[in-house]
Amino acid sequence: MPADSSSDHLTRFGASWIASGVAEFATLPTDVAKVRLQLQSHVEGHVPKYRGFIHCMSTIAKEESVTALWKGLIPALTRQVCYSSMSLV
Fold it and tell me: How far apart are CA 59 and CA 65, in angstroms?
């Protein structure tokens, strides 16, 4: 008996939703550090706070807590899940 195409689409949608959510959760800390490094380079006459990528991530974790590396997780997940899930189905 052939598989129902609507259940196949639902399964693919669910799998893509989970995969894109996990991927966003795993990569968000690197995006947070990247943006902070980019922003500090645009302030003239200011001594940079971060010396590099690893220093940036460790400083954020020490000064603001480890959870600060996931600031903006809900909007990022919403965007990623909607975009990726819709394009993968």
Answer: 9
